[in-house]
Amino acid sequence: MPSRKTYATLAAVALAAGTIAVATSGVAGAGTATHGTPRPDRQLAFDRTATYPVFQNRPAGEDPATPTVAEISTVSSDGRTLIYTDALARRIGFLDISDADRPRGLGTLALTELGDAEDEPTSVAVVGQYVLVVVNTSASFTDPSGRLDVISLSNRRRVTSFDLGGQPDSITISHDHRYAAIAIENERDEEATPAGGEEGDLPQAPAGFVQLVDLGGNSPDRWRTRAVPLTGPNGAALPALTAAGIAAPTDPEPEYVSINGRNQLAVTLQENNGVVLVDVPTGRIDKVFSTGTATVRGIDTENDGALDPAGSITDTPREPDAVAWVDDRYLATANEGDWRGGTRGWSIFDSRTGKVAWDAGNGFEQLAVRYGFANDDRADNKGTEPEGVAIAEFDGVRYAFVGSERSNFVAVYDLSRPTAPVFRQVLPATNGPEGLLPIPSRGLLAVSSEEDDASVGVRASVTLYRLGRSTPAFPSIVSAPERGGAGPIGWGALGALSAVPGKSHLLYSVTDAAYQPSRILTIDPTSTPAVVDHALTVRAADGTPVGYDAEGIFARPQGGFWLAVEGATGAGNQLVRLDRDGVTRQVVPVPAEVAAGLAKQGFEGVTATTDPRGHEVVWAALQREVAGDPTGIVRLGRYDVTAGSWSWFGYRLGSTSTPGDWIGLSEVTVVGNRLAVIERDKLNGPAATVKRIYTVELPRAAATPGPLRVLPKTLAYDVLPDLRATHGWTQEKLEGLTVAGDGQVYAVTDNDAVQDATGETVFLRLGSDKRVFKGR
Question: What is the CATH number of the domain that holds 672?
Answer without folding.
Answer: 2.115.10
